[in-house]
Amino acid sequence: MRIVILTGAGISAESGLGTFRDKDGLWTQYDLNEVATPEGFAKNPQLVTDFYNARRANCASAQPNAAHAALARLEAALPGQVTLVTQNVDDLHQRAGSRNVIQMHGALMSALCAGCGHRWPAPPVMALTDRCPACGQPRTRPDVVWFGEIPYHMDAIAEAVETCTHFTAIGTSGQVYPAAGLAAEARRNGAHCTELNLEPSEISRVFQTRRYGPASQVVPDWVASLLD
Fold first, then answer.
1. For the segment 67-107, what is each residue's pLDDT rounded down to a tens digit?
2. According to its UniProt record, which residues of this chain constitute the active site (predicted)?
3. Residue 116: what are its φ and ψ, rounded to 5°?
4. Separation between Cα atoms, residue 117 and residue 134, nearest integer Å
5. Mind listing the domains of the chain with CATH numbers?
6. At 93, which helix (H) or strand (E)?
7. Which of 78, 89, 181, 186 could form a disulfide with 108 if both were Cys (CB 3.0 to 4.6 A apart)?
8. pLDDT, average across residues 117-145
9. Which residues are catalytic?
10. Which helix (H) or strand (E) holds 223?
């Protein structure tokens, strides 16, 4: 058994980290073109830096929920058979105990030098004057993938999806590509595809098995069914 799990914002919602579509959530207070694009950063880097400082503080105060914990148990029970791909930039999977985590959209807790590409642990509050530890230039930016940029680790993700026997999407809207296309690719390669979500996604028709409800309930139940 080779399992690929794709997680989206819905798995962290019960930990207090809002999704893009949450009414009155953090994202609704901003224009995504201003805070989540390279052009927005070039136009107003202080606004973008402040936005991600707020998101980092929100993440630091959040705790993994039962869904994160269940996936960590699954990985521990099936060593070498589980690849966890997440669209989330929070670190809740890692704090829950998952080790084989691919963060395709980057990491809030990481800083990136826009000059030399060096990465290092982000301070709680980043500043535009922060200098890169490698090259010494003040070219610091959040280590997250903005709209219009290429997600990270796509070769490793493609290899995992191509060879998996089971593909499960958890808490994803099915609206953001290329992540939204992974389930269809896995199914074409013969994998059994499962959707675990609060409600049907935009691509629910792709999945042979569908379970709907809060992630803290449906994910532990699904993990238990696999391990039983």
1. 999 999 999 999 999 999 999 999 999 999 999 999 999 99
2. 105 (proton acceptor)
3. -105, -10
4. 9
5. 1-16+64-105+151-228 (3.40.50.1220), 18-61+109-144 (3.30.1600.10)
6. helix 92-96
7. 89
8. 96
9. 105
10. helix 215-227
